[in-house]
Structure formats: structure tokens, C-alpha cells
Amino acid sequence: MSTKKISEGTISRLFIYLREITALVRMNIRTISSAELGERTNLTDAKVRKDLGQFGQFGVSGSGYDTGELKVALERILGKDKTWNVAVVGTGQLGSALLAYPGFKQHKLSVVAAFDADTKKIGKKISGVMIDSIEDMPKIIKEKKISIGVVAVPSESAQDAAEKLVAAGVSCILNFAPTSLSMPEKVKVKDVDLSRELETLSYFLANKR
Amino acid sequence: MSTKKISEGTISRLFIYLREITALVRMNIRTISSAELGERTNLTDAKVRKDLGQFGQFGVSGSGYDTGELKVALERILGKDKTWNVAVVGTGQLGSALLAYPGFKQHKLSVVAAFDADTKKIGKKISGVMIDSIEDMPKIIKEKKISIGVVAVPSESAQDAAEKLVAAGVSCILNFAPTSLSMPEKVKVKDVDLSRELETLSYFLANKR
DNA sequence: GTATGTGAAGTAATTCACAGCT
DNA sequence: AGCTGTGAATTACTTCACATAC
């Protein structure tokens, strides 16, 4: 495990490569050059090589990368060999949709707990997941070894929900509330904000020549 | 309208500032410094000033920014004064959810058409929007002056759906398929890929010290 | 000949730091 | 005195280009 810092961009592209490589392996294509891989992912050959180069030397001069080997290497680098437990805070419209979302399982993330401030909901199940009281969060997060917390509450309560998750021991937050959380350095926060994506499109339309 | 290129990062932060400023105006706070605005948005004072500085001089030395003025300026810059028409291609689980999603309307985007390849669905309505045949896309996109296309089809059909949208005249694509689209320079593509966000979290967990 | 891996060059984004305005 | 606007310095990211390996 090297010590130099890897950029978010690189990580996110590694997943793109992995997806493509997986498809190639399925198609029985054994070898691929950085140029071809770049073509297929709409990236440049240099970027492909630089990204991969940060983790070791996977290629063979003159012929390219072995798809099978690269797939295994990327899976290891990206931690696709382990499963992580997830808790969702907030079980409104969005929270419920997330509890039903199959993508978590597909990415080796297992949603094992849900929390809601509304006492009427506690004890009920959504998509097979029991809704617990916020008060029980510390105990449950520890017991179930949960490392990812999903914030699916309104903006006003988002900071509070995130702080409770972190206090209980999670180290990653996936934030769906359209507000910026302040969190200690060591906590990884990922904002998912569809509104902002939409807004960016409006800007582009308003300002294109 | 200046001619220098504005980065995506800046645009996306302007929306963050606007959100905060709107809250401040509601709270009757008349003036704010870049340092305070940075504090509230978890950004630095210098970044706030640099971002705003690209569009003009909105501040007053010694006192800061007038929240009311800044709000109006940001709204104008970001095109929040116009409404844009949207078409959704694909009316499966995701497409249907998007047709029901209130966020479009909130951001002055109006979903006025939906398309699906499945002939059994054509003529039906989802959340009040009629599902049309892909064949009618060119006509409908033009008639309804649609400028944003949302791709909510499986990966295999995503490139094709996007090309049809562009051929029909849209200039922005919001892509929900986990695949990279190749599109002409002039088309703005925005990828929304929850899977990739989730995967990035796994990486962080797998690799934290 | 073909394609990698990687320093060096070139761009872009961020942070610093301060002159100048109120 | 307080805070903006902005060049200059720094840091991060990307692209170039080529020596090296097969």
C-alpha cells in the first residue's frame, strides 16, 4: 500500500475501467491497450496509463494489459472483495426508496439498519429493514458493525443526523440533503445532490452562445 | 456576458452560495462577508471571492456583500429566471421515479414528454406525462421545444437513446445509465451515477489507514 | 513494430497575501 | 479598522513525448 495521495478523479475512473474490463472479460477479449481502453471509456490513453500506474505496473510493453489480471487487480485495489454495512437515517420518501434500491447490494453494501425520529414508525419494517429509534443508534451501529451512514433527512436535520452517525462510529457519510455538512477531517463525506446537477444544466442552457 | 471560461466547480459552488444567501435573506440578514459565507458553506473566503469575482464586483470593501443584491445577481447569472422543457427516455423503475420527482419543477425544469421502446406502454400516462413512441421523438422534441433529455434506459441502449435525443435537437443530456456516452463537443452531458458514489465509499473504507 | 511507464511540460484550480477602497 | 478584488505563488491535474521493454 503506497503512501502517495490518490485523487478522487482517479478512483472514480478506476471504477469506469473496471466496468469496461469486466465487459471485455465476458466477451473473451484477453488483452487491451491503453489507447483502446481510453477509446471505450472516452478518456485518453495517457490518463489510463497514469491512473493505473499509480498502483503498480500491470501492463506488458508492446501488447497492452491482460484483461483477466487487470480485473483482479482493480477489484483488489477498489475493495470490491469486502462487504460493508450501511445505516439509513430518515425513512421518508427518499429513505424508503433507498431501502428498496438494489444498487447497494450490487456494490457489496448491505443496508442493515434504518433510523427515524418519528416514534410512530419505530418497530415497523421497510423493505425488510427494521426502523429503530435514533436513541438506539450508538448501540446498533456498534453491534452491527456499520461503517457507512446515509443521510436522507431534510436539510435542517442533516447536520445533526450526520453528527450522531459519526459519534456512533461511522466513518463515511453519504449525504442526500442539499446542504453542506461540516465534519471532522477523518470522516469521508459524499454529497449526492440531484438538484445541483439539474441546476447546472439550466446554467449551461442559459449561457450557451 | 464575459468570454472567459468558467469552471464547473465554480458554477456548482455558485448554486451553493445562492442557497445560503437565500436563507440569509429570509432571516433578514442584510450583509455578509466572504469569510462568513465561506464558513457557512464549508469553503474558504478566498474561493468565495474568486468565484464571485469572475462575474463582476458585487462586494463593498470593508463591509462585505449585500445579501439582497447578491441573490438577484446570482439568480441572473445562473439562469434561474427561465424555464426549460425536459424529456425522459425510458419509463422503467428509474424513469417512472423521475417522472414523479418534484425536484424538476422546483428547479424550473418542466417534464413535458416521455418515450419508451415498449409499444405496450405507449399512450399510457405516468405522473401525468404521456408516453410516446421513440419514432415520434423528433417531432415532439421540436413541437414542445425540449432542450434537456434524460436518459433512463439500460446501459446497452443509452448511447442510442442519447444520439436520438441529440439528433432530435436537445443540447443537454442528463445520463443515469452507468456508461460513458460519446457525444459531440457542443452537447452538455451530465452523468448521475449513484453506483459510482457508493463504490467510492467502499474504496475509502478499504484503504483508510 | 507496438505499447507501456514515467519524467518533463503545460494547464487549471486553489491558496496566499496585500494594495486599495469604504 | 475591516473586507474586497486580484496578481503572484502554490498545488493539483492533464497531456506530451520518449526511453525502454517485449
Describe what you observe in this structure.
Two copies of one chain form a homodimer. Chain A folds into two domains: 8-77, Arc Repressor Mutant, subunit A; 84-197, Rossmann fold. Chain A is built from nine helices and ten strands. Chain A has helices at residues 8-26, 34-41, 45-53, 67-77, 93-100, 103-106, 137-143, 155-168, 194-207, and strands spanning 31-32, 59-60, 64-66, 84-89, 109-116, 125-126, 129-133, 146-151, 172-175, 188-191. In chain A, the strands form two sheets. The first copy, chain A, has a seven-stranded mixed beta sheet with strand order 6-7-5-4-8-9-10. Chain A has a three-stranded antiparallel beta sheet with strand order 1-3-2. The radius of gyration of chain A is 20 Å and the shape is globular. The mean pLDDT of chain A is 93. Chains A and B meet through α1, α6 and α9 of A and α1, α6 and α9 of B. The structure holds a DNA duplex (22 and 22 nucleotides).
